[in-house]
Amino acid sequence: MILVTGGAGFIGSNFVLDWRAAQMSEGVVNLDALTYAGNRENLAALQGDAGHVFVHGNICDHALVEQLLATHRPRAVLHFAAESHVDRSIHGPGAFMKTNIEGTFTLLEAARAYWATLNGPEKDAFRFLHVSTDEVYGSLGPNDPPFAETNPYEPNSPYSASKAASDHLVRAWCHTYGLPVLTTNCSNNYGPFHFPEKLIPLMIVNALAGKPLPVYGDGQQVRDWLYVKDHCSAIRTVLASGRLGETYNVGGLNEKPNIEIVHTVCALLDELRPSAAGSYTRLITFVKDRPGHDRRYAIDARKIERELGWRPAETFESGIRKTIQWYLDHPEWVLRVQSGAYRDWVQQQYQ
């Protein structure tokens, strides 16, 4: 077994689904608190799968984590669970401090105690893989080289500061206690099951509903876009072959400004689901920029390619088409995740 935290969220659920499809002999204990972005419906394909054990609970609950480790005796902990939306961290940073810092600390302590009970090959094989973000490195200038694993940490939002703190905890538990850890820092993910508060799913959902497509500032903020299933394959690769204590940056090799992403989404929707009112670009609306908005992120992913042989399989063009088609094919999923609370949040954020 492996223990996955946050396995009903966007990246976590994609990882669990891919893992069960590729590793039918190895099960998953899936711990998720089911906050607004965690969704059991993402895991519907695993209904009746005895190799998937879902547990509704919080990573800050030490007794629960301890009990899951003792009962299921996983060979690895893969830590996806996090509060991850920058805008929400600006409005309410407390939840980010609790989940991303206290939750990671709780997991590390429980994992350390469990690891100490193992012997021989079981102890040698155990891994704690921490999934983090490129935002811990801060912001890049237009001509700066991409973030490498050796870049200093310069987080600029409550979210990225909380993730930077969690990265430091993981490193410290490795160097102080010898816990066999691995860390991945990824660029912006996109793909199926992405909660529609982030840029790409928000543009898709709003366009189909005929609502404004809100773009912060001048829309020239640059991100490196990584298809979520490529990210999942990178994590599997790092878990299998990564050097203990090391960090691996995972990028999609797709640096693009936000406004280009929005135009790409509109063009594909014009092709796949044309609107009688004309091109979806008519809905683009520029709104006030958010506080402390990082201008550019870019990932140098040469280390993971050089050491482990991983590269993304999808181009942005192939990945974004698959993503938009998934949303067009799953309108019922979109409808169910758009609760009243979510609509109120979008109105507050982009008014």
Largest sheet: 7 strands, parallel
Number of strands: 12
Order of helices and strands: EHEEHEHHHEHEEHEEHEEHEHHHH
By CATH, the superfamily of the domain at 2-190 and 227-252 and 296-313 comes out as NAD(P)-binding Rossmann-like Domain
Strand content of the residues, in percent? 15-25%
User: What is the overall pLDDT average?
Assistant: 94
N-to-C span? 46 Å
Give me the number of helical elements. Answer: 13
The CATH architecture of the domain at 2-190 and 227-252 and 296-313 is: 3-Layer(aba) Sandwich
| Strand-pairing-aware structural class | alpha/beta
Radius of gyration, Cα only, in angstroms?
Answer: 20 Å
What's a quick, concise take on this entry?
By secondary structure, the protein is an alpha/beta fold. The protein has 13 helices and twelve strands.
Question: Mind explaining what this structure looks like?
Answer:
By secondary structure, this protein is α/β, with parallel strands linked by helices. It has a domain at 2-190 and 227-252 and 296-313: 3-Layer(aba) Sandwich (Rossmann fold). The protein has 13 helices and twelve strands. It has helices spanning 10-22, 62-72, 86-91, 94-117, 120-125, 158-177, 199-208, 228-241, 258-272, 302-308, 316-329, 331-337, 340-350; strands spanning 2-5, 28-32, 52-56, 76-79, 127-133, 181-186, 188-190, 213-216, 222-227, 247-250, 255-257, 284-287. The strands form three sheets. The chain has a seven-stranded parallel sheet with strand order 3-2-1-4-5-6-10, sandwiched between helices. The chain has a three-stranded mixed sheet with strand order 7-9-11. Strand 5, helix 6 and strand 6 (181-186) form a beta-alpha-beta unit. Helix 4 packs parallel to helix 6 (158-177), helix 7 packs parallel to helix 9 (258-272) and helix 9 crosses helix 11 (316-329). The longest helix is centred in the N-terminal third of the chain and has 24 residues, at 94-117. The protein is globular. The model has no long low-confidence stretch (mean pLDDT 94).
